[in-house]
Amino acid sequence: MTYIAKPRIVHGGLTRNALGLTIRDYEGGMSTLCAGCGHDSVTAAIVQAFFELDIPPHRVAKMSGIGCSSKTPAYFLGASHGFNAVHGRMPSVATGASVANRELYLLGVSGDGDSLSIGLGQFAHAIRRNLNMVYVLENNGVYGLTKGQFSASADVGSKARKGEVNEQQPIDPVQMAMAQGGTFVARSFSGDKEQLVPLLKAAIKHQGFALVDVISPCVTFNDHEDSTKSYSYTRQFFHRAVHLDYVPPLEEIKVAYDEGEVMPIELHDGSRILLRKLSKDYSFTNRGAALDYIRSHQRKGEIVTGLLYIDESEPDLHGINHTTTAPLCNLDFETLCPGSQALATLQQRFR
Amino acid sequence: MEPTKTSGTEYFHRVVDCQWACPAHTDVPEYIRLIAQGRFSDAYMLNRVSNVFPGILGRVCDRPCEPACRRVRVEDEPVAICRLKRVAADNRGDIRDRLPKAAEQKNGKRIALIGAGCASLTVVNDLLPLGYECVIYEALDKHGGLMRTNIPSFRLPATVLDEEMDYIIDMGADLRLGTPVESMKRLLAEGYDAIFVGSGAPKGKNLDLPGRLDSDRIHIGIQWLESVAFEHVDSIGENVLIIGVGNTAMDCCRTSLRLGAKNVKVMARKPRKFFKASDWELEDAEEELVEIVVNYSPKAFVMEAGKLVGMTFEKMEYDLDDDGNIADTRVVAEEFFACDDVVLAIGQENAFPWIERDIGIQFDQWEVPVVDPVTFEATLPGVFFGGDAAFGPKNIIWAVEHGHQAAISIHKYCQAQSLTDRLPRGVNLQSAKMGMHEWSYSNDYDPTARRMMPSVDLKERFKKLNIEVELGFSVEQIVKEVERCLNCDLQTVFFADLCIECDACIDVCPVDCLTITANEDEQTLKNNLKSPLLNPDQPLYVSASLKQTGRVMVKDENLCVHCGLCAERCPTAAWDMQKSTVNIPYAIDEMVQDEARCLENQKTG
Ligand SMILES: Cc1cc2nc3c(=O)[nH]c(=O)nc-3n(C[C@H](O)[C@H](O)[C@H](O)COP(=O)(O)OP(=O)(O)OC[C@H]3O[C@@H](n4cnc5c(N)ncnc54)[C@H](O)[C@@H]3O)c2cc1C
Ligand SMILES: Cc1ncc(C[n+]2csc(CCOP(=O)(O)OP(=O)(O)O)c2C)c(N)n1
Ligand code: SF4
Ligand code: SF4
Ligand code: SF4
Ligand code: SF4
Ligand SMILES: [Mg+2]
């Protein structure tokens, strides 16, 4: 962290997006995380993605649980809505927010502790409901906020700072989401914004639950030698399986590609993504094959990254539940509260 | 690209934009910090080392540092560098015992200096402490050159001028007033060890138009200002036309207002963007309700009954090309402007009628002496030029810098050393880290706007010629203005082997001037910067290869505001803020070097 705030300086190189905002308008308060924490880089990537997508900050609701990662919504999109829930319970609060106002962009930020230990059940059900949100899981293998205990994502054999070795099997959020029927499953690295920013943009535009698992080193408790979530280890075993280009609506696709190697996908707002295989034997349409690929590389100690699976055809929570198409705040009072007679009729159905 | 070489070279000096732009390389950020600490005498002495006349320059310097100031890259106005110099001078204590002193032991060498302006006085300031005897010949009865005769006292009070010049004269110069040098040949014959010509560019340009010689109400600006300064002239007609729109014109129009003129027009041939006068001098004149009339080219002086009644002008029209240069010129009309007096302020020139042309001192086709731009030596060995006499009219701070360089040359000449084998400039670096997030400077960016100089009321100021218009900053203003300086000498220094490529510095930098990217050739790196390159002349700071990925850290120095956030955010201290000090050698340093060499020889010999 720093003691002085990042000053608001409008310098000559600053550009404006379609809303006339600069990237600085998408920032939040000064970070209080440790200097060099991967989470701060994820924050910067989120800021960049929303800026480049021309999304008005007040159309976003930021959701989080507890942890260093869950603190970060305070450091971006200062003009958005936000809710800092209790430990592991962010998905429930997010579900409520989504039900109330389906037109907001929902962005959840969580950690490996918050999502994979106390919040594992909540996490799984959010996938199951295909809640229309971006779920950024800032994964550092430890409970950073409580001083570096192993989390459920710690790899077997990874050493803690004081030398203790983890012997329990890790939970991989990516594999879990794949198996659970997740409709957008991606992994990236806080130290690779070139990959992370387009992934976040696609995730924001995906209709349904979009998991972005981001390896985000804890520089204080898990960046030493023999850690499998350090900057240097991640860089060494980082394996890009799929490359993603995000193409905004109405923009021409400029890259030339061979059939079969690249898969264009149209997102619900007309923007497109182009997925390009970086590895011949990767299949981005077959859930089972993709899962096998991730597992076989995991056995070699490699971390497979990119947009690993996407399915735009599944209905989200609103589709599944046939909810009203308008946000509740836009309904007139009579529709929202049809009166005691309507309630009595409804109750009659359950008698 | 190869990693940038920063050690010992000019790289870090260039980053301190004001100091780089200042002809005498005044250590601006350091004196501003001293002022911030209330150490006015220290700030004054630091200034004096490089610019010799802080009180004078704090009022009338041409301030090339201000347009260069880094602050204008993040907001409209530069730091009030010049007026803060005045703060140091106005608030200093008695510094007389800290001034340089003439050496008690003379070295037996005698130097003649022609003209007692700022150029000559700087040479004397630098040579008396080394044991030289300095004889100054001055044609006029008072010393100071154009600073006294042309810069009006409402901008530069005589007390300020006298005090700072006397610091030098009182060291023990042999000042001979009212003693013009009428023959260089004769002076050469007097056997001086070296001669310095600091006689200025004393000839005001004339405007040879019909009627020019028919009236005594047509004045040449610099001669007229001199007559005013010596009180030979104390009035002027009600309606005055000033021809020309440079800084001299600004002094002429403002002086006219103080001698009784009611209606003063400055007549400019071209549109405003082509004016020679500095913006601030124009502003000061316009504040006094001087009218600046553009696009009128003088044609003739008009007399009636043997008396000047006005001038005719051709009204001009210009077509500008895409670059804003004049592509075409037309005369569209002729107009008459009535007046009682005309002051010609269209430039000044060198004039050396007293230098014989057969003694080995060469002049070029414009009658400007041929002078070496590094050593300031003329084509006759042992004769040196500086100030306006060297390369034509410039300004005080250039004259001072010429003086410093000429003093080094004179010393080397007298010691029979090579004039070109001069001590190099150097840069020292020292970490500014004092603790966690603690630096030895105030690093928080202060968005305060430039403070406005308070001045004497418009009615009051015309009552006497010598009422100084500017009042100087108040304490409240000083406190605010010093914080506007970005401390450009607090350099960001990078240690590639420590970087873990976490991007923290990149994300926190408020001006996006850092980039980690694959190493490429210079142009590709310039294209790949996080924020587009705005100043292609400023070299990039490129690191050695980073350990984890082999990429490089690239910094665009042009944008950096020296806030230190990169260094605060870096988990491994790969960035450090280090205070750079530029070492500028003076004649005295050359002498210290000689003595060291002497000792060395004694030991080995
Ligand atoms: C109207 C006007 C306003 C200006 N305002 C500014 C300003 O605001 N800021 C700024 O930085 N600069 C200003 N300048 C420019 C500045 O005054 C000069 O660049 C500077 O004074 C040059 O110094 P110098 O020592 O080279 O020569 P000068 O100051 O010209 O001194 C030369 C001296 O040599 C003497 N001399 C000449 N010939 C002989 C001889 N043969 N024998 C003996 N003595 C001789 C002269 O009498 C004179 O005293 C201004 C100039 C003018 C004309
Ligand atoms: C109900 C409850 N149990 C335990 C805690 C203690 N606690 C705070 S943060 C945290 C783990 C955070 O880990 P993670 O989500 O990985 O965040 P990180 O700090 O690593 O980013 C725990 C167990 C708590 N705050 N609330
Ligand atoms: S403890 Fe770890 S996760 Fe928490 S802020 Fe520090 S580096 Fe980041
Ligand atoms: S900000 Fe300060 S140090 Fe930087 S150029 Fe301006 S005056 Fe000089
Ligand atoms: S000091 Fe560092 S953070 Fe601040 S502007 Fe310069 S490079 Fe950026
Ligand atoms: S903050 Fe330090 S370690 Fe991180 S990228 Fe910048 S220089 Fe490297
Ligand atoms: Mg964690």
CATH class of chain A: Alpha Beta
Low-confidence stretches of chain A: none
In one word, what is the shape of chain B? globular
- CATH architecture assignment of the domain at 99-202 and 350-414 in chain B: 3-Layer(bba) Sandwich
Name the CATH superfamily classification of the domain at 99-202 and 350-414 in chain B. Answer: FAD/NAD(P)-binding domain
Name the strands of the widest sheet of chain B in spatial order: 3-2-1-4-15
Mean pLDDT of chain A: 94
Rg value of chain A: 21 Å
Biggest chain pair interface: A-B, 30 and 33 residues
Structural shape of chain A: globular
Helix fraction of chain A?
Answer: 25-40%
At CATH level 3, the topology of the domain at 99-202 and 350-414 in chain B is FAD/NAD(P)-binding domain
User: How far apart lie the N and C ends of chain B?
Assistant: 47 Å
In helices, the fraction of residues of chain B equals: 25-40%
In short:
Chain A is an alpha/beta fold.
What's the structural blueprint in terms of helices and strands?
The complex is a heterodimer of chains A (about 350) and B (about 600).
Chain A: H1 38-52, E1 60-64, H2 68-71, E2 81-84, H3 90-100, E3 105-111, H4 112-116, H5 120-129, E4 133-139, E5 142-143, E6 149-150, H6 173-179, E7 184-189, H7 193-205, E8 209-215, H8 231-237, E9 238-240, E10 242-247, E11 262-266, E12 272-277, H9 287-299, E13 303-310, H10 317-321, H11 333-336, H12 340-350
Chain B: H1 11-15, H2 17-21, H3 28-36, H4 40-51, H5 54-60, H6 65-68, H7 81-91, E1 110-114, H8 118-127, E2 133-137, H9 146-149, H10 158-169, E3 174-176, H11 184-189, E4 194-197, E5 203-204, E6 218-220, H12 221-229, E7 239-243, H13 247-258, E8 263-267, H14 279-287, E9 291-293, E10 296-304, E11 307-320, E12 326-338, E13 341-344, E14 348-349, E15 383-385, H15 388-391, H16 396-414, E16 426-431, E17 433-435, E18 438-439, H17 475-482, E19 490-494, H18 504-508, E20 514-517, H19 522-527, E21 541-542, E22 552-555, H20 565-569, E23 575-583, H21 587-604
Helix pairs in contact in B: 3-4, 3-7, 4-7, 5-7, 8-16, 12-13, 13-14, 16-21
Bound molecules: flavin-adenine dinucleotide (FAD), thiamine diphosphate (TPP), iron/sulfur cluster (4 copies) and magnesium ion (MG).
Flavin-adenine dinucleotide binds near residues 117, 202, 248 and 395 of chain B.
